[in-house]
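Dear colleague,

Thank you for sharing your sequence with our group. We've completed the structure prediction you requested, and as agreed, I am returning the results in plain text so they can be pasted directly into your records. Please verify that the sequence below matches your submission; if there's any discrepancy, let me know and we will rerun it promptly.
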Amino acid sequence: MKRVASLYLPDWPIERIVRLTVPAEPIAAPPEAVPSEVGTPDADRSAGSRVGGWRPGARWARGEGVHPFKAMPSDEGRTPVRNTRGGTSSPPSHPRRHPGLVPGSTAQKYLPRELKSGPRHEAGVTKSEIRGKAPTPLVTTRQDGNRLVIAAASPAARALGIAPGIAVTQARALVPELDIRPADPEGDRAALRDLALRAARRWCPLVAISSEDGLFLDITGTAHLFGGEARMARGIVRLLARAGFTARLAVADTPGAAWALARYAPQICAPAAQFDAIAPLPTAALRLEPRAIDLLKRLGIDTVGQLAALPRAPLARRFGGRLIARLDQASGRLPEPLDPVIPPEAIAVIQRFAEPIATADAIDHWLRALMPRLVSALAQAGLGARAIELVADRIDGVPQRLRIGLARPTRDAAHLLRLTLRRIEEIAPGYGIDALTLHVRRADPLGAEAFTETLEAQTPDLAPLIDTLANRIGEAAVWRMAPLESDVPERALHAVPALDPPPAAARDLKASDVRRLDARAPDHPWHIRWPRPPRLLRRPELLDHVIAELPDQPPRRFTWRGETHRIVRADGPERIGGEWWKRASERHSVRDYFQVENEAGQRFWLFRRGDGERSETGDLSWFIHGSFG
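Please find the predicted structure tokens below.
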């Protein structure tokens, strides 16, 4: 029999924003201060134990990265852990052995506490209050015509009377300290899809997106791998709670019934009992349109059971076939196929041999056969390779690996083959090679490129040259310098990839935006009247035996690295002040730079620390920072 679980994330946009911007804090609390949020048995709750020995301060639970989801540990196979309160925390027992989880019992059918996670507002205590601070009301906004309205609100904001749909000005008048963030529907959908992909890899192979804040999980034939439906449901909710997300979960025979129960009465519905479970629920549990729900309320129909008792012909004439279809899908009379999220598969081509090969000519031959197959697979996926790896499986079980990096996405078979064949000598065949495999380790989207014939001069393509150099001498040895907005010379440049990045898309400004009045081109960070040396020293080096007149004359003589230089020409000074907005120690610091030339024609870039008049600007030491020519 088919079994479907519906996962509901009521505060998904709000908690995703909090997860991205604020590191997650430990969510554990003393059991006597607040009821459990992840559904441990009552006996464990009274003993003061933590579920499965979970450590709330674990590194993976703090949200160090920008992505809202991290790899979460499994709940299976945990050993008992001694806690600080004298009790012992252990993993939940098998549902068949637990007295409250006997299959078919009432405890298994109704598990609202085990299938919910998040703040227990009905108890009057929230997690933030336990930590000693009041929760900050947080809302997201969206544009509705000329109005800015609330798109989503946190539980703390809803408790203060702020609901989605009201104007932001009204909400700010009600709560002046309201934290307002712009809504990101595309980011929410992308993160929900990422959660679906992770669920498909971890819990069940068929996962579909049910709505903007929920998922369908087809757990048919997979629940026994996690100890049964009840234990699997608790494990899913518990992992999401540790990641900082409020979740509700229900299991039923149909997706419609599971969706309704997850939002109104989370439970594990017994097989073939889904209609009795959803009968007392409101009509909104059938995923009807708001207009139809309002009309049913005016007619006095409030629950699904009342709606199912009415004759079908008048309902179809009044509301159309969609209402009848939703009712039949929830009860199981009509099928509701799911549109699963398919995890992307790694691209790889393999060639196995009946007899081992051990010569360079044989490897060359089969690489020429494998590379077109790899390029065809990339073209079908619409991707371009950024890193490929050749794995030669030897008969002694020691694989030989050869990694090729690329400066930009490509599907040029000749270029990829040329880079790979140049490094064949790095492969040690040993007693023979059983198989050759080409893996795509990294890829980026790459669409079709138009081919145009023109007589105009074309910009040369440096990608093949950069790929050749990077794979021969190392990727870290090929880079270029780019300017930064800073007056301090050593901070005014940084290393970037060798190829120019794609041009940034111009921002579309409104007609009333004052930034449209500034039509000037952006200033270059390096002023053309004050040239810089093509190469600076790693750090400025101190000069000895410097003879110079104060306060603004260049040096006449100095000693650098044991060699004395006499200056015949000089230009300057160019005064550069410290960046006081970055460091308080640079508030009064001053550098006076000079371009000088010695008797042999060598040109140096020197500076004096201090302005020559005030002692707080520097100690008047001289340094060399670079050289010209």
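Summary note from our side: The radius of gyration is 34 Å.

Kind regards,
the structure core
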